[in-house]
Structures are given as C-alpha cells and as structure tokens.
Specification:
The chain is mostly helical and 190 residues long. It is built from ten helices and six strands, in the order βααααβαβαβααβαβα. It is globular, with a radius of gyration of 18 Å.
Length: 190
C-alpha cells in the first residue's frame, strides 16, 4: 500500500511535532519504533498505543497532536498507478498487503479513492505479523487457497519481495509505475 498505492512521508511525524530529526533520539526513537511495531502487529490497540506515546513524550504533546502527527505520514494516492490498477483488476483478482496500523489504514482508506478499488485487505495489525515475516505470506496463501506460484506480490522493498519468493510467490520490486507496467507486460499480464 505505502509508496506504491499511497504516498508516504515518514519524516512528517517528527516534523509535524516540531522535532528536528537529530533530536528525535532525545524522545526515545527506538521506544517509538518498538511501540509502532507492536501497534502494526496488533499486539497493542489504538488506545494503548497513544497512551504509550503520551508517556514516551512525557506529556509534551496532547493526544490530538500525537494522533494528527502520527497520521500526517499518509499523503495522497499515487494517481499515476490508477490506470494500471484498473487494467490489472479487469483481468485478475487483486488484494492489498500492508504493514500498517489501524489509524494509518483508516486515514488512507478515508482519503484516497484507490483503496476503495480493492475488496480484499491483508493488514499486519489483523494478521499479527509484518512483512518480511514468512507468516504473513503463508497467511495469504492459506486464505486464498491457491498455489503460491499463482500469486504475484508487488512491493517497494526488495527484502519483502525476496521473502514472498521464498514462500513460493512470484514478485516484483516496485520502482516506478512505468517500470512496473513494463514488467507486467513481460509477464503477459497486460
């Protein structure tokens, strides 16, 4: 989802809070990353996550400020990929697999039209694991009840594509819409 279908700005969180990137460690960057991972894997819920964030930032920001900053990383949809998604969906079943939190997914869904084109979502906070954990890909294979080799996984992170391939899927590392289009043509999917 992120950086393929929806533009993401990871620097927006500290920037929105007015924290210079080199000062983020002062606020426990590793602690925030750990909490974010727990949130994205469903080990803590939204309330627990933001209570933990308030504590990590020692009450320097209100809940509203933290929620707004947290969701600020979600930008607009990648409009250049819409025609390609439409062409693929005319011939194949599609789904979204994303490492995401409940609030990031909801903001993405509410603010972009492209996600509404999909009827199947595999979200890390629901699965309980994040890419590149093999459990994520195995969950999808079981849920779809298909041979892994019939699944094509597209992601902007090579490590995630490599992990999908180790589980028997085919994969493409997303670099740009034009390059993805060319690779899909080579696979005779367009």
């Amino acid at each position: 989802m992120g950086r393929v279908l929806v533009d993401i700005d990871f620097e927006a969180f500290p920037r929105t809070l007015g924290i210079e990137r080199d000062r983020t460690s002062h606020f426990g960057e590793k602690t925030i990353e750990r909490m974010a991972h727990e949130y994205e894997t469903g080990h803590i819920d939204t309330e627990q996550f933001f209570v933990s964030m308030e504590k990590a930032f020692k009450g320097n920001y209100s809940r509203e400020q933290l929620v707004y900053a947290w969701n600020a990383i979600i930008r607009e949809e990648n409009s250049a990929i819409v025609p390609l998604v439409d062409a693929i969906q005319a011939r194949f079943q599609t789904a979204i697999l994303s490492n995401t939190s409940p609030t990031h997914f909801q903001k993405s869904y509410d603010t972009t039209a492209i996600l509404k084109k999909f009827s199947k979502f595999y979200l890390s906070f629901q699965i309980g694991a994040t890419k590149p954990d093999a459990a994520v890909y195995q969950y999808i294979i079981r849920d779809m009840s298909v041979e892994p080799s019939s699944l094509l996984f597209i992601d902007d992170i090579a490590e995630n594509v490599t992990a999908a391939k180790k589980c028997g899927m085919d994969g493409i590392v997303f670099k740009s819409v034009s390059r993805l289009q060319a690779e899909l043509r080579l696979l005779k999917m367009l």
